[in-house]
Amino acid sequence: MAQLAMDCEPTNRNRLTFKGYYSIHYSKLMEITAMDITLTLNSPQDIVRGIASRAKQRRLEANLTQLGLAARAQVSLGTLKQFERTGKSSIEFLIAIAFALGAEQEFESLFPPRPRKSIEDVISKPLRVRGRRK
Q1: Residue 10 is part of which domain span?
Q2: To bridge 77 with a disulfide, which of 23, 70, 82, 134 should be the other Cys (CB 3.0-4.6 Å)?
Q3: What are 32-48's pLDDT values in tens digits?
Q4: Residue range 75-133, pLDDT digits in tens
Q5: DSSP bridge pairs for 22
Q6: Helix 66-73 crosses helix 91-101 at what angle (to 10 degrees)?
Q7: Does 88 lie in the same domain as 50?
């Protein structure tokens, strides 16, 4: 028999924290494990707006105007204004802004390779070139 008891509390607009215990009853063995689980419930739009907000904050910390940043990044002023307001941009635009703000290193960790779990994984599973799922 397994039981799960949790309290749910919102810690901010997009994050829920569950605190509770999980008990497993075997014939003569009982195990109780304390759990802290945090779920982040961000939508793609929330992430996009967050990136735009952080880029704007970096621009202001560098004491740059929108026109000055647009000139440094060699992008149009209108596109920069739209990006700061809505978060919508192309990846090329975003990288140009990141370079102009000195934040290009953050892109290096965007899609890191997943670590292999064991030596058997390295030997038996070659790296995939194409996916199968649609």
Answers
A1: 2-40
A2: 70
A3: 455 566 666 788 899 99
A4: 999 999 999 999 999 999 999 999 999 999 988 888 887 777 777 766 776 666 777 77
A5: 4, 33
A6: 110
A7: yes
C-alpha dihedral over 67, 69, 71, 72, to 10 degrees?
160
Together in a domain, 36 and 52: no
Q: Look at residues 65, 66, 63, 10 and name the one whose alpha carbon lies nearest to residue 40.
A: 10
